[in-house]
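INFO  loader      accepted 1 record
INFO  loader      residues=42
INFO  predictor   begin
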Amino acid sequence: MADNFLENHYEDYLKKKAEWLRKKKHLPKTNRQLERPADEAL
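INFO  predictor   done
INFO  writer      dumping tokens
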């Protein structure tokens, strides 16, 4: 297209995606560790 509509929107998409990924990386990870019993009787 003559007005570069798709190119401009794709650039906006890439900017928003990069910002979202930056925010996502700063979120704390939730590590769930299973609690094992003190005596592991077989």
